[in-house]
Design a protein that fits this description.
This protein is an alpha/beta fold and about 290 residues long. The protein is built from 11 helices and 12 strands. The chain has 2 domains: about 15-110 and about 230-250, Response regulator (Rossmann fold); about 115-225 and about 255-285, Rossmann fold, CATH 3.40.50.2300. About 40% of the residues lie in helices and about 20% in strands. It has a 6-stranded parallel sheet, sandwiched between helices. Helix 4 crosses helix 5 (about 145-155). This is ABC transporter substrate-binding protein.
Length: about 290
């Protein structure tokens, strides 16, 4: 093909590309996380032209090929729009899932996948048999998702409810006395700055390990967690759009990362793992299941 024809073809492609392949990304506000996520979408195998708007600017004046929303508020905005454009909602937890999901929607959860957390617990505490789950009325609906994960990992689940009108110490102490490892659910009523000190001190006084609920809590004192970074979420989103559409599907990111608190491991007389090697082990284990 000669140079003139190549140039003409390029002009034609560029002229029609946005009409059929533009991706609209609705973000709550610009941040380091959103910049990293958008950079991940653009890397290697781009989805085509990206139009990024904040929630305050968002409107559907024309139909893009696909829409990506970040956060529960952006999802709420999308649900109010009269459009059947395929939409992938990210950074949403189970508590914010719409009860009736339209066929044009798929949701990628922001919390760690239960089976990954349990496999991590087994890798860090080899003799673990009983997993403790502390929940409130806001997270009780998460419990059924942990049953198949426990069966997959050959672990027994022990759960206790915290009725928030009462102190957290009683159900927490009872749970710790009857389990080997405390694994955090996605519940901000429990896992917040007001409760964290009590949970950490009570757990480590009984030589109990805490897994999760997210990377910042590892820095604060839990032993470790799997989590999906902005790049992990972007890679998972790109892969999802290359697959057949599953109406109303809810799933976890395919890609994930790992964070370990080596100081906590040493204080509990546990071996400090090589993070990179352990991450590869967890991914290899997932690949063969």
């Amino acid at each position: 093909m000669n140079t003139a024809r190549r140039a003409l073809l390029l002009i034609l492609l560029l002229s029609v590309w946005p009409a059929y392949s533009q991706t609209l990304i609705v973000i709550p506000a610009e941040s380091q996380l959103t910049r990293e996520f958008i950079g991940g979408l653009e890397a290697d195998l781009p989805l085509g032209p990206l139009k990024v708007v904040t929630l305050a600017e968002a409107e559907l004046t024309s139909a893009p090929e696909r829409i990506v929303t970040l956060g529960p508020d952006a999802l709420d905005w999308r649900l109010q729009q009269a459009s059947d454009v395929h939409t992938l909602a990210l950074y949403v937890n189970r508590g914010r899932l719409p009860p009736d999901r339209p066929d044009w929607l798929q949701v990628m959860l922001s919390s760690p996948q239960p089976v990954r957390q349990l496999r991590l617990a087994k890798a860090l505490v080899p003799r673990v048999q009983r997993i403790g789950l502390l929940f409130t009325d806001k997270s009780s609906d998460q419990l059924p998702a942990w049953d198949p994960a426990a069966a997959d990992s050959d672990l027994r689940l022990i759960s206790r409810e915290w009725e928030t009108d009462n102190p957290i110490t009683r159900p927490l102490t009872d749970l710790l006395d009857n389990s080997d490892v405390l694994v955090a659910l996605d519940d901000s009523t429990i896992w917040n700055a007001d409760q964290l000190k009590t949970i950490l001190l009570t757990s480590y006084a009984r030589n109990r390990v805490i897994i999760g609920p997210a990377a910042p809590f590892v820095d604060a004192g839990s032993l470790g967690t799997t989590y999906s970074s902005a790049m992990d979420m972007a890679l998972s989103a790109r892969r999802r759009f290359s697959q057949p559409w599953q109406p109303g599907a809810v799933f976890y990111p395919d890609e994930f990362s790992l964070r370990i608190n080596a100081q906590v491991a040493r204080s509990l007389s546990l071996p400090v793992p090589d993070e990179a090697a352990l991450l590869q082990h967890l991914k290899a284990e997932e690949a063969v299941r």
